[in-house]
Design goal:
Helix content is 45%, strand content 22%. With 89 residues, it is α+β, with helices and mostly antiparallel strands. The protein has a three-stranded mixed sheet with strand order 1-2-3. The radius of gyration is 13 Å and the shape is globular. The N and C termini lie far apart (41 Å). The N terminus is likely disordered.
């Protein structure tokens, strides 16, 4: 069954990032993921509580890099590119 590139795919990716972030942080209620769709790539913007910023980035950015790798791999199945931006308020 071929996968359709639809808003449900984007919703699944948002859910993936959100669930990973909620598992990492101390303030899971403050996790927000917003998608900004472009022609080539969909940007997922992750916002967390300021105290949790270091937890989602990780040492030398390793955690953020791992999440981006997962996004890339999952995006390949949907035939769409995703990037992750971690924003501070």
């Amino acid at each position: 069954m071929p996968l359709e590139i639809s808003s449900s795919g984007v919703a699944q990716m948002k859910e993936l990032v959100e669930s990973i972030a909620r598992a990492l942080v101390d303030h899971p209620d403050d996790v927000q993921v917003k998608s900004v769709e472009g022609s080539q790539v969909t940007v997922l913007e992750l916002r967390v509580h300021p105290e949790d910023l270091g937890k989602v980035i990780g040492r030398q950015g390793r955690t953020a890099k791992a999440v981006r790798t997962l996004l890339g791999a999952a995006g390949m199945k949907l035939k769409k590119r995703f990037t992750l931006e971690i924003l501070e308020d």
